[in-house]
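Format notes (please read before filing issues)

Several people have asked whether sequences and structure tokens are stored in separate files. They are not. Every record keeps both together, in the order shown below: the sequence lines, then the token lines. Line labels are part of the format and must not be stripped during preprocessing.
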Amino acid sequence: MTRSPILMMDPSMNLHPSSSDIFRPVPTLETERLRLRAHRVEDFEASFALWTDPGVTRFIGARPSTREEIWSRLLRYIGHWAALGYGYWAIEDRATGAFVGETGFADFKRAIDPPLDGMPEIGWVLSPAAQGQGYATEAVQAALRWGDAHFGPITTVCLISPENGPSLRVAEKCGYTLWMNATYKDTPTLLFHRQQTQAKTTSGLAGASDV
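Then the structure lines:
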């Protein structure tokens, strides 16, 4: 497999904004069926139901999370936006307002080779009831449109279990290509990347409203 060059962060574009920039409201993104919004403390029980479902965690950590771990995860989501100016969104069904999953970008400082410094990592997870309806692709594409406008021409990455067929298909639909085989916490994983080559823009996000 030919490895294309990695577009690292341009020094003029800071992924870690100064304190004067970090306390802006989390943008809300809307698609035809979904709303991506900031996490709230009130999301804890819905997040608990999500991350304790064995079907959800089968390929993510390989075990249901504890309440303590889920609480830390929720605070980490909120803190990402406050500290870095980007992060994860809670995904809602616009028709019902139901919490159906999470998606977004993060810097987890993973101990992985190659290091992912300067490359925001995208991830997504859907509740079992919301799977198989194209929601993951719809949500990830909305997040990517925001990321393309916010980050500019850099590479974003994602880690996916080789056995996670649905997520592999979402990654492909969203423009991610296999970068290399890797190991994370003694577990084989596939590392994908997507290169955004257009100049950073503050224009509207086609296909998703930022409200």
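For reference, the curators noted about this record: Helices lie at 44-51, 54-57, 67-84, 135-151, 165-173. The chain is about 25% helix and 25% strand.
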